[in-house]
Amino acid sequence: MKQMKQLLVIFCLTMVLAACGSSETVSSTTAENNAPTAPSPSTEPAGDAANGEALFGQSCIACHGEGGVGIEGLGKNMTTSEFIRGMNDDEFLAFVKTGRPVGDPANTTGIDMPPKGGNPALTDAQLLDIIAYIRTLQE
Ligand code: HEC
Asked: Which residue among 7, 17, 62, 132 is buried most deeply as judged by most CB within 10 Å?
């Protein structure tokens, strides 16, 4: 009798699994199932921070220092920057591509922030990686 019960349980489980399997195939045509399987949250930065760290080391660190803490007389501290905090990725990208020359009324140090940190070879994708990295430095 005990064996019968076990068999029944196994049978039921099999049916449930089969039902799940088939309902999946059926509903895969519905709009719900056509949604991306792993939606990335909108708060997630677009770039790759690990790659950005390497690029930051090549193009920004000379003025902004290790960990973006800034270097007196060269580049500003990024870790506490309200300006950076207030920008979305698009605005940040546009800023880095333009820079902030001494002649810009927004310039606070009397030192040039060169477009792309003076490295015109940097692509938008690479700059977004750098931006993702800089966001990890923010306090
Ligand atoms: C040649 C030195 C130099 C390099 C290289 C450089 N910067 Fe800058 N950056 C500056 C200076 C100077 C400022 C401050 C300008 C000012 O007075 O407002 C600045 C400001 C900034 C700001 C604005 C910070 C704030 O709070 O206002 C951002 C963002 C920034 N830099 C990003 C970058 C990124 C990203 C890179 C690398 C791609 C980079 N910088 C490379 C010199 C540099």
From this structure: 132
Residue nearest to atom 19 of ligand 1 (CA): 113
Among 82, 113, 134, residue to substitute to test ligand 1 (most atoms within 8 Å of Cβ)? 113
Q: What is the pLDDT of residues 78-132, one digit of tens each?
A: 999 999 999 999 999 999 999 999 999 999 999 999 999 999 999 999 999 999 9
Q: Which residues contact 45 (CB under 8 A, 6 or more apart)?
A: 89, 128, 131, 132, 135
Give which of 2, 130, 120 is closest to 68, Cα–Cα: 130
Structural tokens at position 12:
């039921």
The residue whose CA is least distant from atom 27 of ligand 1 is 83
| CA nearest ligand 1 atom 36, residue | 60
Q: Which residues have CB under 8 Å from 136's CB, separation 6+? A: 49
